[in-house]
């Protein structure tokens, strides 16, 4: 559907998304998270995402490499990554919405900055390779 977007651009976006995810977790673990408005169990909830985000990041880079090498498995793997991104974004949207974390005074800008790139990247991968 989005065949006009080159493989090189998609691969670069995948590596950028993986790098951004790793950067997010480095920053997240370096912060205290003691804001009074954070929901009970916030830290425990977020820590659970380290594992799927790590798998997703590795798969994004693997897919990017395979795409650049011309291996068709890269396209299938990109679709898997797109599904992972969409699933993780949906969980974040639900959690942030339920806990009013999209509100400006509750870190809304940061919440949106996490969700929007995930949705865009998931749509890019799904629509490019479906």
Give an overview in words:
The mean pLDDT is 96. The protein has helices spanning 7-29, 42-47, 50-68, 73-98, 108-129. The protein has 130 residues and is an all-alpha fold. Helix 1 packs antiparallel against helix 3 (50-68), helix 1 (7-29) packs antiparallel against helix 5 (108-129) and helix 4 packs antiparallel against helix 5. It starts with 6 loop residues before the first helix and ends with a helix. The relative contact order is 0.16. The longest helix has 26 residues, at 73-98. The radius of gyration is 16 Å and the shape is elongated. It is built from five helices and no strands.
SSE blueprint:
Elements (H helix, E strand, L loop, with lengths): L6 H23 L12 H6 L2 H19 L4 H26 L9 H22 L1
Helix pairs in contact: 1-3, 1-5, 3-4, 4-5
Would you tell me the structural class of the helices and strands? Answer: mainly alpha
Given as residue ranges, the uncertain stretches (5+ residues, pLDDT < 50) are none
Q: With helices defined by DSSP (H or I, 4 residues minimum), what is the helix count?
A: 5
Per DSSP, what share of the residues sits in E-state strands of 2 or more residues?
under 5%
Dominant shape: elongated
**How far apart, in Å, are the first and last alpha carbons?**
7 Å
- Fraction of helical residues: over 70%
* Count of individual beta strands: 0
> What is the chain-wise order of helices and strands?
HHHHH
Query: How large is the radius of gyration?
Result: 16 Å
Largest sheet geometry? none
Mean pLDDT: 96
Features of this protein?
130 residues; mainly alpha; elongated
